[in-house]
Amino acid sequence: MKRWKLVLIAVVAVGATTALVACAGKAGKDKAEKSETSAASTNAGASNAKGQLTLGAAASLEKVFSDKIIPMFNEKYPDIKVTGTYDSSGKIQAQIEEGAKIDVFFSAATKQMDELDEKGLMDTASIHPMLENKLVMIAAKDKAEQFTSFEQIANAKKVAIGDPKSVPAGAYAKEVLESMEIWDAVQDKLSLGSNVTEVLNWVADGSASVGLVYTTDAKKLADKVSVIEEAPEGTLKEKIVYPIGIVKNSDNAAAAKIFVDFLKTDAVKQVFVESGFTVE
User: Fold this and answer.
1) Are 148 and 175 part of one and the same domain?
2) CA dist 75 to 29, 79, 80, 101, Å?
3) Which residue range is the domain that position 272 belongs to?
4) What torsion do the CA atoms of 89, 90, 91, 95 make, to the nearest 10 degrees?
């Protein structure tokens, strides 16, 4: 009798174990199927996105986007056509405030992004600090030997910087020169550019003796300009950070999100690094 009971208990135990294994297997299968369905849904959303997308970005970003990143994106998402408009961050900000059809804003400073966000014009959750840059003093190749440091900017005949009122690079330049107590000494020598690219070109063609631009800009025309020195440590209160975000009234928010997510991929980050930026 005892032997019979032992056999019965063993049979029940085996049955219970089999049932548990079967349930676990089914749960795992259901979870996998759910994951595959979710992934398929996400991929379908990306593949279904199409139409026009306008990027409003700082002038210092034009070359890397036009030459490399936008072509990379178009290859992966041929149904989304990206058009870039590039100028000083202040001017792009003004365009967005005036209702321009811009979907993604990539600023060269947090100031312009923050102001737009405070006015309710940005999708706050989408704002992300993307890149970091440096401010440098440059001179044309044939004049570079005349300068060895930032302090000597006061000896230049013509100094080019972006307009501090609308160009982040110009605002940074003014902050550095004020910190070094030579802002007043260069007032009569200043040429104010409408964007940092204009400043770069003035120095390259000899219209200005020296200029203050970003490291990435100097790298674009390395055959025509030389970097004299990076802005001395401590002359800027904060790092030069480039935030990106989606404009709230975007006509194609789905495509805008795909584009912004694409910029965060390792392949695109590498392109930014090769262009002289530091990725946040």
Assistant:
1) yes
2) 35, 9, 10, 24
3) 49-132+241-279
4) 100
